[in-house]
Each structure stands twice: as structure tokens, then as C-alpha cells.
């Protein structure tokens, strides 16, 4: 066994009694000025996290320049002012205006970058600060492999989960306290909870769960084919059932009932129910 922290044989790096990085007792915190002569020495065995961190720092983080300069040159090449000098009719004017608008719109679209939707749920400032401290401790552990930083990162992670649960509960309590009967907010909330919602199961076929629209359509079509059969024509197509149906409907619509229809007599209804 070899310890990469103190470079000694006989124990691993996570040994609780390592002379260089001993395991802190439960509940201990890291001092901000935790630096000694021993752990500040530069060692030849650089970890992968340290090498990757140096490469990330050397990357060019300058913002991407705007492309409007290049698109403006293309716009000058497409639009010539002397083409708009000889306009004698309304149709020519409309054609030139449409061409000019299309060129400007195309150049603007090519030079612009779409804005991504980065909407996130609200997080209080103290939780954001804890997340920043946790990320800093995790980064320090990846660079130095100091178990104290890992312990601090795990402690902050548990604290963040606890604070998020408290914030969610407080938000829910505030929402319940804001419900009133005047604006029907209380009624809408109780209706939402009392309404029964049935879970729609997934469409499952012989090949598994249908994931895309094509698989769902084929599965539904095969289900209809297996469960329903086509009505066969009587007499092996000897009788013309289509013409019979058409003639019956024609006779019915050609002699509509008299309007207005006389109301039904209660005695007639009683006789009908008895018979």
C-alpha cells in the first residue's frame, strides 16, 4: 500500500491517521488559512485534475465577436444604389422594396445569435452561497486530493439539501396562507387536489414500449386489426346492399314527416310501456 499524500508505504491516502492529511473528526471545519510548510511543497506527481485545470485556464475565454461586419459586406454586394434610381412604376417600386427588405432581414438573421431560454426556479441568496462554497471545496479536493476538502464538500452538500427542503416548505406554507375565498384561489386549489387523475400507461407491444409516433401508430393499427373484423357482405356479394341502403335513405328523406309534429299523448306513452 502506498499513500500519494505523504508518499509513504503502509497505508492508503484515505487512512484516518495519515501524518500529512489526517481524517478530521466529525463536525470539524476547515480553517480559511489552512496552509503549512509540508502541504505547500510542490510535488512532482501532478494529478490529472491539476493538469486539466491548467489547460482550462489557458483556454481563450474571450467572447465571440459579432458577425455583423461580414454580413454588412455581403449586404453591400447584394444591394446597389443605382438599381433604385430608375423606378418608373408602382410594381417596380414594390419589387425593389421587397428585395431590399429581404436582404436586410437575411443579413440580420445571419448576424444574430438566438437567445437560449435559461429560466430557472428561484433560489435564495444563502443557498446560492452554499452552492458556491461546495463547488469551491470540491474543486480544491480535485486539485489537491486533500480529504479535508472532500469532507467539507460532503458536509455542504447535506446542508444544501436541508436548506432546499426548508425553502420549499416555507414557499408552500406561504402559498397556502395566501389562498382566499374572494378570488376563488382556495376553491381552485382544493379542486386540483380532489380531482382524481388516472395514470395513462405506456403503449407496450411485442417489441417493448412504443417510443416514437410511428411505433405508436403501428401498435394501435395492429390492435384494431386483431380486435375488430370487417363485416362481410351477405350472399357472397350476390345482393347489391349498397343500392338498397341508398334507396332506403332516399325514400326516407324524400318524404319527411309533417311539421310541426303533434305532441305525444301521455296515455300513448303508458300503453307503449305496458306493451
UniProtKB/TrEMBL annotation:
Domain of life: Eukaryota
Keywords: Nucleotidyltransferase, RNA-directed DNA polymerase, Transferase
A single MF term (Gene Ontology): RNA-directed DNA polymerase activity
UniProt-recorded name of the protein: RNA-directed DNA polymerase from mobile element jockey
Organism the protein comes from: Trichonephila clavipes (Golden silk orbweaver)
Name of the coding gene: pol_3542
